[in-house]
Amino acid sequence: MDINDIRSLVTLLSLALFIGLMVWTWRPAQRAAHEAAARLVFEGDDGPLSAAAVAEDHTRGSRA
């Protein structure tokens, strides 16, 4: 088995993994999860933040 056989095998395995992930992700059972994730952007939206709220958030850091 030379290097080109190994490269071909890796390419085929990568393609199979990609196709498997696409099938698993877009299966009909995942539809509810996708719709819920799409709505997350709009939940809890209280309007634009004030400059003071943004500054306070930056001083606290991202470790809330």
TrEMBL record:
Alphabetic keyword roster: Membrane, Transmembrane, Transmembrane helix
One Pfam family here: FixQ
Regions that span the bilayer: 6-26
Domain of life of the source: Bacteria
Classification via InterPro entries: Cbb3-typ_cyt_oxidase_comp
Protein name per UniProt: CcoQ/FixQ family Cbb3-type cytochrome c oxidase assembly chaperone
